[in-house]
Amino acid sequence: MDKYIHTFSSVNWEAVLPIIIPIIVIQLILLAVALFSLKKAPATRGPKLLWALIIIFVSILGPVLYFVIGKEEQ
Fold it and tell me: Locate the Cardiolipin synthase N-terminal domain: which residues (predicted)?
C-alpha cells in the first residue's frame, strides 16, 4: 500500500495537469451535450434510460456511442 502512495506523491503534477485538465473539460462538455441531446430527442435506438446510463458511466466512449449509434436520424 505504501508503494502506491509513494508513487502517487512522486508525480510531477505541474507537468501532468496541463494535459489532464483539457481532457476533463472536453469530457464534461461532451457529457452535457450528449445528455441535453438525449433529453430533446423524440426517439432513440433503444431506451433513453439505457442511453443515459451509457453516457454517464462509460466515460468518453459513452457520449460518442450515443451520437454514432443511439441517436436516430432526423
Answer: 29-70
Does 60 reside within a domain? yes
Q: How far apart are CA 33 and CA 38, in angstroms?
A: 8
Domain enclosing residue 51, as ranges: 17-70
Q: What is the DSSP letter of 29?
A: H
The verdict on pTM exceeding 0.85 is no
| Per-residue DSSP letter, 45 | S
Taking CA atoms, 22 is separated from 15, 17, 26, 54, 59, in Å, by: 13, 9, 6, 22, 15
Q: Is residue 50 part of a domain?
A: yes
Average pLDDT, the chain: 87
Total domain count, the chain: 1
Q: Are 62 and 56 in contact (CB under 8 A)?
A: yes
Length of the chain as a residue count: 74
Q: Is residue 8 part of a domain?
A: no
